[in-house]
Write a structure and sequence with these properties.
Blueprint (H helix, E strand, L loop, with lengths): L10 E4 L5 H11 L6 H9 L3 E7 L7 E10 L2 E9 L8 H15 L4 E7 L3 H9 L3 E12 L2 E11 L2
Parallel strand pairs: 4-5
Antiparallel strand pairs: 1-2, 2-3, 3-4, 5-7, 6-7
The chain binds coenzyme A.
Length: about 160
């Protein structure tokens, strides 16, 4: 399956709890505070969350990125998104976000939202280019090594 904005050779794999270890491995490559495999397994087996892995060869042997989201009532929240460093800057983050936008629309969600650290310029640019607007702020939400950063809440209506 090819997706908007991604090279033809990349593919999306719908995740089950069996992908938890791979998701944790990719998350650790993307974030300073990694989430555990049991954490991903819990999110995916609770029935509330869904995830996609973007692979270079379609069978998850060369994973490039991932996205995990949940839909409650008519709102879809992007819970986490990452593209492994060697694949960044090629539009894959945008492709993963757009893939969830399509699924949210199909699930009749009317809005999507997410939280991102104020100092995460790449991610904020990505979301703003995809039409997300700032909708709020949580002071000192992200804490690490004695420092902290506000979380910016972004929201986008789904037409
Ligand atoms: C944020 C992230 C998912 C973006 O993924 P991506 O595939 O690089 O995204 P895109 O290619 O669609 O580009 C998004 C923007 O970041 C830029 N960018 C991201 N990483 C880059 C890199 N390593 N080198 C150059 N530019 C980069 C892109 O050029 C683009 O900016 P621009 O439109 O102003 O040129 C990725 O950088 C990442 O995984 N970061 C760590 C985890 C994270 O912060 N997740 C989001 C938390 S909410």
């Amino acid at each position: 399956m090819s997706i908007d904005g991604a090279p033809d050779t990349e593919q999306l794999v719908a995740c089950s709890a069996a992908h938890a270890a791979l998701l944790a491995q990719m998350h650790a490559a993307c974030f300073a505070v990694p989430w555990s495999a049991p954490g991903f397994e819990g999110l995916l087996s609770s029935g509330g969350a869904s995830a996609l892995i973007l692979t270079a060869d379609g069978d998850a042997e060369e994973p490039c990125g991932f996205i995990l989201w949940r839909t409650a009532a008519d709102e879809t929240e992007i819970v986490t998104l990452g593209v492994v460093p060697e694949y960044r800057g090629r539009g894959l983050g945008a492709a993963l976000t757009n893939a969830v936008l399509e699924r949210a629309r199909a699930a009749r969600a009317t809005a999507m939202y997410l939280e991102v650290a104020e100092n995460n310029g790449h991610a904020r640019r990505l979301y703003e280019e995809l039409g997300f607007k700032q909708a709020g702020r949580r002071r000192d939400y992200y804490k690490s090594n004695g420092g902290s950063a506000d979380a910016i809440i972004y929201r986008r209506s789904i037409e």
